[in-house]
Amino acid sequence: MPDKLKKPDYQDQPKQAMALIFRDASLLLILLLAILTTVAVLFTPMGSWLYSSIAWLFAADSQQFWWYVTRSAAIIAYLLLWLSTVWGLAVPSKIASPLLDATYTFDFHQFISLLGIGFLLLHVLVLMFDRYLPYTPLQILIPFLSPYRPVWVGIGVISFYIILIVTITFYLRSKIGMNAFRSIHVFSLVGFLGATLHGLFSGTDSALLSMQIHYRVTSLSVLFLTVYWFVQKYLNKKTATASQIPAVKAGSTKESRRNIK
């Protein structure tokens, strides 16, 4: 006689979810403490020595150095945001279901979203160290206060807040429910659109052919997957409605026969 299959213990699922949340929260706390410690050290004599050494080693005292850092962080953050958006559209639409393993799709989606937030923070924080056009914390946190192209930079700030809120809902999914979770995640499309407009109209390298191709390929791919997702959703809803009609007719026929009898 084969051994009976062990039933899954659903009581352990909340514990496992809490353990994952605690792990991710601990990692974020460690990262935050590391950033705060680094900032605190920079204001000490040792920090001045470290800064001078790094500036000598990497030519960080030049005006172009911080521009390269912030632009590199911005491009990587945008690509991660694009990948997260594409992933979030490809999974529910099942356009790449043969290639995606359902076991890890959600975790990977969450990971690249958090990684994108990290590069976005780097892109934003470096602006305060820029020697050519330094930003204040208020100009970074409050939209449309930027001294450089305030409208498009302000759209970028709003997009960052939208992306941040959408990412936080990964940890609130069990509390807010799947319907609210999916509804909030639709706003990630708004965040991606705002990030695209921000990079296209406020990026100092947007006139380059490579960056034009970069923005067009990413935005068109998201547009295609969005249309495909809406069409699939409409067809599935139409199919479900059509499958319910015979059942309703059969039920009404049985009821009418009972009334005749």
Give a short overview.
This protein has 261 residues and is an all-alpha fold.
List keywords for this structure.
single chain, 261 residues, mainly alpha, 9 helices, 0% strand, disordered N terminus
Account of the protein in words:
The chain has about 260 residues and is mainly alpha-helical. The protein has helices at about 10-40, 45-60, 65-95, 105-125, 135-140, 150-170, 175-185, 185-200, 210-260. Residues about 1-10 have low confidence and may be disordered.
Give the helices and strands, then pairings.
Layout: H1 12-42, H2 45-58, H3 63-93, H4 105-126, H5 137-141, H6 150-168, H7 173-185, H8 187-202, H9 209-260
Helix pairs in contact: 1-2, 3-4, 3-8, 3-9, 4-6, 6-8, 8-9
Assign an overall shape. globular
Structural class by secondary-structure content: mainly alpha
N/C terminus separation:
52 Å
Calculate the mean pLDDT score and round it: 81
Strand content: under 5%
pLDDT < 50 runs, ≥5 residues: 1-10
Proportion in helices:
over 70%
The number of strands is 0
Series of secondary-structure elements, N-terminal to C-terminal: HHHHHHHHH
In this structure, how is the largest beta sheet organized?
none
